[in-house]
Amino acid sequence: MGEEWSLVLFTLLAQTSIGIVVTSQLVPIGDTKTAKTALLYAVGIMAASLVVSLTHLGDPLGAYRTLSNIGSSWLSREILFAGSYFGAAVLLYLTVAKGGSTRSLIGYIASLCGALTLISMSFIYTNTSYHAWSTVYTHLSFYGTAAVLGALTFSVIAATTKPDAGSMFYGKVLAIGATGAALQVFSLAPYLTSLAAGSAPMQATAKALYQSSPLLISGQILLAAGAFCFSFLAWKAYAKGGSKASQFIYIALLSVAAGELANRYLFYATGIHTMMGNF
Questions:
Q1: Which residues make Cβ contacts (< 8 Å) with residue 140, sequence separation at least 6?
Q2: Which of 1, 117, 175, 208 has the fewest Cβ atoms nearer than 10 Å?
Q3: What's the pLDDT tens digit per position in 49-68?
């Protein structure tokens, strides 16, 4: 499992970065300092994810050659769109740093490239010999992670740089996070049911998840607690002007991050290859 940790970190970091940028487009804060800080974090997090991704490439320096398969390979598309997203995010940061708005042409391009990166990333796994990954749950999990981690990270940055952003702002941002968490939490039961009734490799994954049920349940509880409970408490505190609002935001992000880390670990640890599942 050690070699898969790079994939765990790469996917979580990339999805968080994309979530921050998309959230900044959907709910612009109108404060240059906050927007600039958020985009700086988005760029830094994506840069870290790209560095991590090099560790699971057999020939990192030759990664550019995979672009020749752009018409047939989702991995090639992911590399293209991830690079394009990173470049657009850097340009968006520079634009905002000079006084520009997050809602601009380059902002929309960055969000589009980010969305295409998420789509490509998801299809890489749904088009593999791991049957448990070849379901809609993979898409819901990746998109949901981007929404909840991106929104909560954006909220923490806002709470630090502009504490008086207001309950309406936090209500919209936290609603995005709650939606992302809901996609994952409420699709888990149907996913587990489909695994138990599926092919031999899918049933093997279901068995592995059952054996890891303490971690699976803990991950879901942490995700739900952060995205629903602590986020709601933060919103209520901001609505009342309470001093504990930022504390709830921080706890919410830490809880969700821990839950997503556990869930993504299980995604890779319990994936059963077609050949293995038939023995």
A1: 183, 184, 187
A2: 1
A3: 999 988 766 555 555 555 66
